Records
---
Amino acid sequence: MGKNIHDIQNEIIEEFALFDNWQDKYEFLIEMARELPPMDEKLKTDDNLVRGCQSRVWFSAFSEGDLLFFSADSDALITKGLVALMVRVLSGHKPDEIAGADLFFIDKIGLHEHLSPTRSNGLVSMIKQMKLYGVAFHQKQLGG
Amino acid sequence: MENNNLDIQKIRNDFPVLLQKVNGIPLAYFDNAASSQKPRQVINAIYKYYSEENSNVHRGVHSLSARATEKFEGAREKVRAFLNARNTHEIIFTRGTTDSINLVASSFGKKFIGPNDEVVISAMEHHSNIVPWQMICAEKGAKLRIIPINDNGEIIFDEYEKLLNGKTRIVSVTHISNTLGTINPVKKIIESAHKKNIPVLIDGAQAVPHFPIDIQALDADFYVFSAHKMYGPTGIGVLFGKEKLLNEMPPYQGGGDMIKTVAFEKTTYNDLPHKFEAGTPPIAGVIGLGAAIDFLNETGLENIAARENYLMHYATERLLQIDGLKIFGNAKEKASVISFLLDGIHPYDVGVILDQMGIAVRTGHHCTQPLMERFNIPGTVRPSLAFFNTIEEIDRLEKAVLKAKKLLGK
């Protein structure tokens, strides 16, 4: 059994606590972006594009067994780093857990400004959509 | 000529907003093209209005209303003089550049644009000078024609003239491009259009803070701008229109103030300028605009232009030293903005890093998506200068861009 959403977030908070300046924090984020497994080019369609004004985010969802997985990418590196964190936290769990997840880690690692609507970088929309997928897949599971 | 006749430190002290820190670092504000900062003179004028002079204008017998009206119409005369327009009644107050263009597109369009007619705009226009024309063209069955630009971001003049024909009803182009910084040859553009009796609207949003405008010399039929980009408050802008055209155009919005008499059977409309100013106007905004004009006149627009020219050259030179940095917009005549990209790096990432270092720039498509398509780029990093920026701030910008390149490059 893998870690649950809550534990993964705490893990991330611990990792970020090691940084005492913005440079190290962003370097780490950029590293996460570079380590994110590349998204299949075939999946980077307009349908999978989450629109932001500033940067583009693609993501797609698929289920395996009773777990929900996400694959995502962005054309901006910092956005991609945040996307990587989201995938790390939310991917590979039960749909209802994803739907109801409280994403407290963003604030705790001091990156909540990237979720502000003015940043318009596609992240907020992506998180919303991930949760919606959680709801939809959960309904599907209940439906039998 | 670094400072010309300006005491920059004294001027900076007049802008309270510049005193703050961002992420613990003094703010270097390079987002002037998005919105300008406001000097104390403008803030105080608005404060004074609300503290001592507030009253509705035009319809009042009492002294307070008379004073407010005098100040309000006094500001209109200031705008007239600022633009060197012939008549005060040719100055219409609107909510801003976008509102002004919508007014012309709708009202001029209603009367003068018909099926198969043509409207000419350029490939470098801001969405506010594209969408209103798309809307009226769709409504009337007219066609939007686009003046092509070269790789330097300049209008291809012969191609422009080829577009002017018997079906062209209006030309609408920007004075200075908010993304490329190109200063368009608007006098020539207007002359060519006038040879074929075609009126021209000039979008002056980016121009008015940078150099003096002479409407009569340009012979523009419509000229529009926003106060908030020229050291004034938000929510107020100007439409200058030649009275002959404005008189022929139907009203845009209906309501109080724009009428002479109202009866359920028939209503008659007011004369210029009030015909196009329905409802209580943004009085405090107008007074702020008047104070902004006073500020610009006292500082001297020629002084401002000279200093900004100097800063632009310095900044361009510094940025071009950076390996892998490309500037978009290399017109022979430029002002206001420098749009650039670092090779292989997304502009959003650069903007985030610059913000961490206290430097405010804008990133993205700058409301000119067709222009981004033309150059096949996702957006740019756009520092935009004002006369109160300093060499020290530009040096900080250069260092920050180098740092961003180091962090984000492969």
---
Amino acid sequence: MTGRIKRWWRANRREHEIDDELAFHVETQTQDLMRAGVPPAEARRRALSGFGGLAPIRERTRDARGRRWLTDLVADFRYAARALRQHPGFALVAVLTLTLGIGANTAIFSMVNAVLLRPLPVRDPGRLVLFTGDTSQGTITGPFRGGTWTLFSTETYEFLRSTPLPFQSVAAFESGVYRDGLQVPGSQNQTDTLVNGHFVSGNFFGTMGATAILGRTLTADDDRPGAAPVAVASERFWRRNLDADPQSVGRTILIDARPFVVVGIMPAPFFGVRVGLAPDVWLPLHQRNAQYRERTNNYWLSLVGRLAPGQTMTAAEAATTSALRRFLASQEAAPIDDDTRQRIASVRIAMADGSRGISVTRERNTPLLLLLWSAVGVILLIASANVGTLLLARAASREREVAVRRALGASRSRLIRQWLTESAVLGALGAMCGATVAWFVAPRLLATFVPADNPMTATIDGVVFTFTSVVTLVACLLSGLAPSLRAGRVDPVGSLRLAGRGRPARRVWGMTEPFVVAQVAMSLALVLVATLLVRTLLNAQQHPYGFDQDNVLLVQIHPQFGGYQAATVGELYRRIHDRLETLPGVERVSFARYAPFSGSRSSTSTVVIEGYEPGPGETISLETILVGPNYPQTIGMPLVAGRAFDFADSAGARRVAMVNEAFARRFHPERTPIGRRLALGPNEDRRYEIVGVLKDAHFRNIREAVAPSVFLPMLQEPTNRILNAEFELRAPNAANLAGPVRDAIAAIDPNVRLERTRTLRAQVLATFGPERTAAAFIVTFAGLALVVAAIGLYGVVSHGLARRTSEIGVRLALGAGRVDVVRLVARETLWRLGLGLGIGLLLTQAGSRFLAGHLFGVTPTDLPSAAMAALLLSAVVALTTVRPLLRAMRVDPVIALRAE
Amino acid sequence: MAPPDRADVLQGMLDMLILKTLATAPLHGYAIAQRINQSSRARVEVPQGSLYPALHRLEKRGLLAASWVDTDTGRRARVYRLTRKGRTELGREIAGWQRLSQAIDWILET
């Protein structure tokens, strides 16, 4: 290392030595000539002229020595830094522009990486296959259906696991979430907490390819009937609840008061197979409630398999599908009727790549993320174009300097290298600032796309950094290339003579035109997309939901932690209801299994409706919602006919139900459904009489049509499902009542656990999280693009006019009016604007495929939005021409002509 | 690009001429140019523009060694001398040149 420094130091000194050497030569020759009688001045001149120019010789001599690239690079760097310091305005604008482009790209790509691309942190994730492409989680109860299977029952899973298939192993995991009470004896952290558990088969960890950091993972032995209850915990759970005790293996924890022995701890990056639903503990399938597990027609499992070496997914899909069909056929009593035979033949399993796990976020948001990514790509292009334009503008004004340097012997490649160094310095600065910005922005950005307790992180990891560097490089090259090429082609003599006259400038100017048009086009595209998204949000918020979002407060309540059972909880609800009604300002109180837009859903297909005969092969699927007394009035759902529930409709009383209009339209189109009965349950053992009809309301997604729904009284429901409820209360000051409500419930029974207190409006808005974020970002991007494009345009117009001062002076002197000057500028501007708008509109159309799924109430070809965007852009473009135009009009012909 | 100097054409031969000139005694750049001019009876004039690049190139190749010498004028001169490697190279170049010129003679005689 020191050797290299020494050599570099010596090389530096050598520069001066060469000067000395040449100077000596000149001196000696001068002396000789003087001795021969030549006068001193003449002698010196002759000696010097013999060299033909010291500088090129110095350069060539230096080149001959080689090893110049380092000194050249340093010199280039210093020159670039000085040039930038001399033009701080330009440097600032350029660096900011690049920061924007690169920072936005890095942030978005970090998120794209986290959500879309990142594979599961397991061994060889490429061999994992999911037995479904559907990401929704939940269970289905009922006779097996035809069509594509996404869920499996315990016995179908057992069969598939033990059949020879092209898989090394097939594992199962519960489809759905499980939360229950947790106690950890002997822990510092003794507050009762809830634990997220995931029931998985014994071979789950082996199939996934993950190993524990402490202890062991589950095995097939743990997943047998009668096996001892064991659990595998996550590292987060280990740190939080087990105090990171290295002796944790063997400890007992209580889940729902049942003892489980911890046998292993999984490392932090591992979260199972479902992205965004990282459990605290993994439990064997057989520990699930037996009723839940062993019912033949309870389809509650999702499957994942690891392909055997050399096997393909398509082959596996075919083999598994036919195996399943054989199994189903074998379960039916012979002879099989045609209906069943058709159903079996229609059964298929659609396999999907499992290397990235199941991610609802990914499925929901892929088009949106791609849209964001395209938007930032566009921003980067605009930014590069802008910097390129700026550099070109500078190139045009530095033509004299370039000419002089060329005359002094600088080679073309040297000049190009100089320019590229300058844009590289800009790019490096931009990249550093951009990466810093992205560092702060990316996690916040991700937080709006995924729920808060999600361990997904958008770190700036190696992939992202490489991406940034590549992007930077491309941006640099794009920006630096145009001026470099331009610089190379400058004719030294020509430009020295004509510099300032404006003629060569036109050639340089020609290069800026496409940039400018491109910027206008891309800005338009962004503004238009932003407009469409904003209108979507406005439409979504104003869309009639069917209930009154305002003034309703929601509180989730978990009475099972207070030791309540289905039989005893009804009274608790009554007490809470009465108590909450007394709070100041409260108009109505009710409760339900879940509130609208809470993400939950419950449906059943074992239903018989009086007066309606299902057609052949038709399955009736009803959404069932358990609600309490006065529900519609509390939520603000209008009652169209009949009555709502009251406290008389409780256990033991006659079973009643309410339905919605969609139900009435579908099943009782001619007459009112009131008075009709319907029977639910596999044995049709629960019969209800319809007493009320409610107006249609959206409970999940406003894009879906409202499904036929039946509302059942929670107090008449015998199962444990009523042990999770959500209280709703209507009051003008609903948002401020959160505290008093919690206090009131705690006063009644402090053991009842409360969660998620929020207003109904907040709940609804939360479901639009990704769209709102995307809209916010794209609006910001569009704004930035406009600013950047405006700056670029302003620079181009003002520079262009400045260079043509003499031309304008001539025109004015020759009798042209000021108006003609305006017309001149206007014509050019209109040309740029028109072309830009046209291209921009085309771009948006091309991207409309990504857009369509996320729009609501507008189409990508929406005319008013396009008109608004075009108008905005035209206004901005017009604004940028105002000041240069005013300056041009004030040109004094005499001064302009003299300024050559 | 500027039109090539005549020295570019003679570059290979220039190296040989420099080496030969320094075979007898070490000299500085100006003296080398003078000596070549004299020895060729004023037929060959080495442009300074090619002399110094050639000298530095040869030095880099290790065929010449250079050092600074103070002269009586007060300035210092860079004096070049032939290294052993340079001497070997000189012999090789001369042999090559003689073979070439012999071949050209044969062609011209036919």
